[in-house]
Every structure is written in structure tokens, then in C-alpha cells.
Inverse folding.
């Protein structure tokens, strides 16, 4: 049941999230924030969840915390999968490790993101936020796609790919392109409405990468439909969520601003446990599969309501194909293929 109906979606309700004991799920960036809460909800319904994260230490600490907070025997299993999205070679390697471990994959949630930081480029000469937030997840997803498709062949299966984006794309300029490496590396300093935290979020290219998440979802669904593969791809805007990163950003501001921002965030922003509701809805709510045509490539708002991406470029299927084609070309230049 979604928030389109009279009762809001609640992942603790057995009618909203069915038993997931036979499901295998991957959540990237799951050792904190929304990803952590998403794993907690899904594992409590019995799913076997891979916490895909770069640091084993942080992942194991998070898994211990999950158990301490009520991930009891009989619930699902949570396992660490090493994943570094800053290098597509390593992202593909991680996917291949999983392919060797599992004979099914029901849900992939591309949750990990790099929202903050000064402009920088990776060793592949790609802006780091575009690499971590788009190119790395693209490679990871496409390498896992054969296993996802194999699972989807079973008539009883319900395979989904969920990409986490941000409503912050609304503040980007119009007319963004993804024609070449220069477009991927555009620093776009003057693309947004001014504001200290928002500027840091978007000026480093993260806003453009979150726009890419929506476009990737659109084009992926089109290709899946064209190939007759019954996988659902959805993009999720979790809304304003009080993650550790957000609170750290507020704390890093000058004293007066920091105090006001912290008060507003604590008062108005959603805690991660609730902030994960939309991700869980996209991953596991029966309503999504029951109304397949409605939810194909849907843009979901909290806590599971179908909306429209708040930027016209995110609704452009031609731009989605341009992004896909350029991503493939850049990856070939890096020597990476998944065919």
C-alpha cells in the first residue's frame, strides 16, 4: 500500500512489506544513513542483504549495530560486500565477486552517493561525483544485470532496480547535456540558486550526477522493456533526511549559522529510519508489482507516492539516451566492458 491510498506506507506492517526470506538484495552505501535504515527494514522481513561498502571496518561495525538494534536470529542475513564506486574497474570487480557467490539477485538499490566536497577528478579524468554517483553505479548495475535478468525469468519473482536521486536537481540550470567528457566534467559553478550548503552540494557536480540517476533509470527501463525483461527500474527522492552527513554539514558552518541550521534540521528533517521508507517501498511493496505499468521508471516521493522529477531535463528521454551512449563510450575508453 502506498501513500496514494488512505493509509500511509509502513515497512513494519506485514501487508505493506511481505516476507522476504527467499530474496537476495544489494544496498550500496549501507553502513550509514538511509542505506543503513533500508537494510534494517528489509532484513527484518527476512531478506539476505549485502551491505556494499568500501570499508570493511565500517561495514562490520554497522552490521553489529543492526544486530544490537534488533536484527535477531530468524530475521534476514546481512553480509558485507566490498565496493568502491570511485573506480569502475573496482566496481565491476565487486559485482563479479557477487556473481560468483549468488545464483539469484532480486533487488539492487543504488543508494551510495558522494554529495559533498570540492571539485576534483579521478584518475580516469572524470569528475569524482559523476564517477561515484553515476558511472560506478552504472558499471555495477550492468555487470549484475545478467543475474537480475536470470532471476526475473522465474514467474514468481519480482526483480527491481532502485536508484536513489535527490529533489535538489530542481535547482540546476536548464539545458544540461551529456555529450562528452567535458559535459561530464562541467563544474557548473553558476547553475544554481545561491546558498552555502546547497552550493556545496551542487557546485561539485553532485547535482548533475543525481540528474543522471533519473535519466539512467528511464533509459534502463526502456531497454529492459525492449528486451522483454520483466525488471522494474525506479528512481527515489527520499526527501529531506537527517543523515549524519547533513548534520555534519550544519555543524561545519560558522557558529551562528550552524546553530540555526542544526535546529531546523532536527525540527523539520526526517530521521533516517523514516527517510528510508520510500526506498523500501520501491524495493518491496507489493503495490509496485501489482501496478507494473504505473511504476515503470517511476519517480517516487516519500513515502511511496508517484511524482514528476522536478527538472525538465530529467524528463527528457532523448537526453537519457545521450547519457547512456556517452557513459558507454567513456567506459570503453577506460577499457571496461560488460558484454
Amino acid at each position: 500500500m502506498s501513500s496514494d491510498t488512505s493509509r500511509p506506507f509502513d515497512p513494519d506492517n506485514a501487508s505493506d512489506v511481505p516476507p522476504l526470506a527467499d530474496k537476495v538484495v544489494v544496498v550500496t552505501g549501507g553502513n550509514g544513513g538511509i542505506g543503513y535504515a533500508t537494510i534494517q527494514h528489509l532484513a527484518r522481513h527476512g531478506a539476505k542483504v549485502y551491505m556494499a561498502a568500501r570499508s570493511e571496518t565500517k561495514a562490520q561495525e554497522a552490521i553489529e549495530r543492526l544486530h544490537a538494534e534488533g536484527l535477531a536470529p530468524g530475521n534476514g542475513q546481512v553480509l558485507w560486500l566490498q565496493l568502491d564506486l570511485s573506480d569502475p574497474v573496482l566496481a565491476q570487480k565487486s559485482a563479479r565477486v557477487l556473481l560468483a557467490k549468488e545464483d539469484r539477485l532480486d533487488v539492487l538499490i543504488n543508494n551510495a552517493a558522494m554529495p559533498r566536497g570540492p571539485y576534483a577528478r579521478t584518475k580516469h579524468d572524470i569528475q569524482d561525483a559523476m564517477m561515484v554517483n553515476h558511472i560506478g553505479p552504472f558499471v555495477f548495475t550492468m555487470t549484475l544485470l545478467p543475474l537480475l535478468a536470470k532471476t526475473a525469468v522465474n514467474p514468481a519473482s519480482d526483480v527491481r532496480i532502485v536508484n536513489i536521486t535527490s529533489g535538489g536537481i530542481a535547482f540546476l540550470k536548464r539545458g544540461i547535456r551529456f555529450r562528452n567528457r567535458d559535459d561530464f566534467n562541467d563544474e557548473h559553478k553558476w547553475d544554481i540558486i545561491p546558498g552555502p550548503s546547497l552550493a556545496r552540494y551542487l557546485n561539485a557536480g553532485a547535482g548533475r550526477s543525481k540528474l543522471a540517476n533519473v535519466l539512467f533509470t528511464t533509459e534502463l527501463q526502456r531497454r529492459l522493456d525492449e528486451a522483454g525483461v520483466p525488471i522494474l527500474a525506479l528512481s527515489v527522492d527520499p526527501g529531506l533526511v537527517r543523515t549524519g552527513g547533513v548534520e555534519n554539514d550544519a555543524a561545519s558552518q560558522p557558529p551562528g549559522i550552524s546553530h540555526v541550521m542544526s535546529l531546523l534540521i532536527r525540527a523539520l528533517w526526517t530521521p533516517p529510519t523514516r527517510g528510508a521508507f520510500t526506498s523500501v517501498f520501491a524495493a518491496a511493496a507489493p503495490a509496485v508489482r501489482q501496478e507494473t505499468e504505473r511504476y515503470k521508471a517511476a519517480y517516487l516521493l516519500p513515502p511511496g507516492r508517484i511524482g514528476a522529477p522536478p527538472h525538465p531535463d530529467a524528463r527528457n528521454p532523448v537526453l537519457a539516451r545521450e547519457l547512456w551512449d556517452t557513459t558507454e563510450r567513456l567506459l570503453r575508453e577506460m577499457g571496461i566492458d560488460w558484454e
User: Anything to note?
Assistant: The chain has two domains: 24-238+276-333, 241-274. The longest strand covers residues 48-53. The CA atoms of residues 105 and 148 lie 5 Å apart.
